[in-house]
Design goal:
The protein has 441 residues and is an all-alpha fold. The protein is built from 18 helices and 2 strands. Belongs to the ammonia transporter channel (TC 1.A.11.2) family.
Length: 441
């Protein structure tokens, strides 16, 4: 294949696989944070996102996000010239040296996890059929346009203030603020869970949470370093920054926990790690490693407080999508305006002698994406609620979504109890005669 760079191609293939692994990791992270009676439902929301968005991306998603638009809609959405991706087969990017299909596959994984992130906010109370409808509609009307705005030649990528352009290296706006704002809108439409604020709704399986956080942390190296589109110095910087920002965020979160509650928790460590990963995503190639530590400290400390805002403002963000992804994405995107360094990638933030323009243009991108995602998601959710209902009945919520919606349970406690009771009854009523015990083994 003429012009093919096998090294770059191999790196993008590996990075795409790493990003794909993040969505099953998210399923474990969210599944462990859920209650035992709804863990399978929560995990299926992530896994079905993989299936639905992957097909939709090939059919129309990639071209709507990255295709060249026409007329007055060009700044807002791409065209349909490459629908189906068939025109990409065998084609190589002339500058990067990688097959165009590798790029399409890599970006597919971003689309998948963005939708899956939203699900954690509505744990325990959404109709599964409504979710299966929400995923493609939200992808078409929200994610694909926003991806076009930021990375596909749309208005966010084109705006400048004082000579500064928007920086979103791997998805602070397009992925995390987008998903977080959508999650907030869904909580408004679906309302609070039964017993929110009065009943204990603690995570049922913290080892699952830690496993999920580990898989996400591992996959995030493909998410961020892979966004360099080459195995080069930029990828190396993104990898190191991702690691140290995440590490710093866990420390900041644990410190806040220790001060507020007197204890350090496994859930807090895992949540701090995700907050750091989210915040460094837009800034991974534009801050120094010391700057990345600063981003991590800010995100870990602020997000540790932000997750409690749901109790103050009475919105039921079940698994802290708003407090971690929206808030963390905002922190990381705005931190670029303060901590970006020309040593890293050519632009200086305010703390390195740069102008106010970079911070201002980052703020415009943050506000634009957040408002669009919130409003469109609210409208989509309201329409789905009118058509088929988005919220499950109270008795389904009480009995658990796994049993009521999927006829399954993650843990066969009832069956085990029945077996034990049956064994005890057999032992009491029909003791094994001497000599038969050995024969029955």
């Amino acid at each position: 294949m003429e012009g093919l760079d096998t090294g770059t191609t191999a790196w993008l293939l590996v990075s795409a696989a790493l990003v794909m692994l993040m969505t099953p990791g998210l399923a474990f992270f969210y599944g462990g944070m859920s209650r035992a009676k709804s863990v399978l439902n929560m995990m299926l929301m992530s896994f079905t996102s993989i299936a639905i968005v992957s097909v939709l991306w090939v059919l129309v998603g990639h071209t709507l996000a990255y295709g060249e638009g026409s007329g007055p809609l060009a700044p807002f959405i791409g065209g349909l010239s490459d629908a189906g991706l068939s025109s990409m087969i065998g084609e190589v990017d002339p500058e990067g040296g990688y097959p165009l299909l590798v790029d399409a596959g890599f970006q597919m994984m971003f689309a998948v996890i963005t939708v899956a992130l939203i699900s954690g906010a509505i744990a325990d109370r959404a109709k599964f059929g409504a979710w299966l409808l929400f995923v493609p509609v939200w992808s078409l009307l929200v994610y694909f346009p926003v991806a076009h705005w930021v990375w596909g030649g749309g208005w966010v990528g084109d705006i400048t203030i004082g000579g500064a352009e928007v920086i979103d290296f791997a998805g602070g706006t397009a992925v995390h603020i987008n998903a977080g704002a959508a999650a907030l809108a869904l909580t408004m439409v679906l309302g609070r869970r039964k017993g929110f604020g009065s009943e204990s709704m603690k995570p049922h399986n913290l080892p699952f949470v830690l496993l999920g956080a580990a898989l996400l942390w591992f996959g995030w190296f493909g998410f961020n370093a892979g966004s360099a589109y080459a195995a080069d110095a930029t990828a190396a910087l993104a990898l190191v920054n991702t690691q140290v920002a995440t590490a710093a965020a866990t420390g900041a979160w644990m410190l806040v926990e220790r001060i507020r509650y007197g204890k350090i928790t496994a859930l807090g460590f895992a949540s701090g790690a995700i907050a750091g990963l989210v915040a460094i995503t837009p800034a991974a190639a534009d801050v120094t490693p010391v700057g990345a530590i600063g981003v991590g400290v800010l995100s870990g400390g602020i997000c540790a407080y932000a997750i409690s805002w749901k109790f103050k403002f009475k919105y039921d963000d079940a698994l802290d999508v708003v407090g971690i992804h929206m808030v963390g994405g905002i922190i990381g995107s705005l931190a670029i305006g303060l901590l970006a360094s020309a040593t890293a990638n050519g632009a200086d933030g305010l703390l390195y002698g740069g102008s106010f323009g970079l911070l201002a243009v980052q703020a415009v991108a943050v506000i634009g994406v957040a408002l669009y995602s919130f409003v469109l998601t609210w409208v989509i959710a309201k329409l789905i609620d009118l058509v088929m209902g988005f919220r499950i009945p109270v008795h389904v919520e009480t009995n658990g979504l796994d049993h009521e919606l999927h006829s399954e349970t993650a843990y066969a406690f009832d069956e085990l109890d029945d077996e034990l009771e049956g064994a005890e009854a057999t032992d009491l009523s029909s003791p094994t005669p001497p000599g038969e015990e050995v024969a029955s083994r």
